[in-house]
Amino acid sequence: MPVTVQVKVNTQGSTTRGNSNMVELTGYDHTNNKGFKKLFFEEKKSGGMTQAAQVAKTLVQDDWCEVTMDDSSYHNVTMIKKIAAPAGAPAESQGAGSSERANQRSSRGGGGGGGGSDRMSKEEWAAKDLKKDISVARSVALKSAVDMVGTGINKTNVGAIQKLAPIFELYLLHGDFNYVEPEPVAQPEPCCPNDNNTPEPDEDYDSDIPF
């Protein structure tokens, strides 16, 4: 008598056995509460894909299906049907695919944690905002320079635009047409050349003194 089991899919893929193309389906046999792994033919003898292979190719991890097998000693797969998760089904598996989906939810800020470790620091937000401000300022500065010089594009106008645009950019970013970036503050040199700031011994230090 044919047997039908409810299976939660882990993997499915093509393989070969001798000269035959096969489909391998693995997962969890919910009906018998054990692991599930079956190989079955991908193609009919007359040509074309078997019904079981057609359905199996559409399955992804954590899908549910009904697998019907004949009553031979090999329990050959005769039919596969995709189904909804049955009552009392186990939670989502913890395989690689589930971990990847969890990471994707985390990166999108899913759940109550609001993104967790993916949150940006104040310094990172400041750098991002500054980059955006510079981009906007450059766009506005270029447009202003083009408007002042005129729409005609020639060698003379391009040269004028190149000179005017940076001036407008300085004004937009710093409120000053003649803004000059301040020089970095020089760090004082250490008082002593060695790492622990201990004074070097005098050159006439007598290392043979017995104490």
What does this structure look like?
The chain is of the alpha+beta class. 31% of the residues lie in helices and 22% in strands. The chain is built from 4 helices and 5 strands, in the order E-E-E-H-E-E-H-H-H. It has a 5-stranded antiparallel sheet. Helix 3 packs antiparallel against helix 4. The protein is elongated and about 90 Å long.
The overall average pLDDT, rounded, is 75
Protein structure class: alpha+beta
CATH architecture of the domain at 3-88: Beta Barrel
Low-confidence stretches: 94-117, 203-211
**How is the CATH topology of the domain at 3-88 named?**
OB fold (Dihydrolipoamide Acetyltransferase, E2P)
Shape: elongated
Can you count the helices? 4
Distance between the first and last residues' Cα: 100 Å
What Rg is obtained from the alpha carbons, in whole angstroms? 36 Å
Order of helices and strands: EEEHEEHHH
Which CATH C-level class of the domain at 3-88 is it?
A: Mainly Beta
Biggest sheet architecture = 5 strands, antiparallel
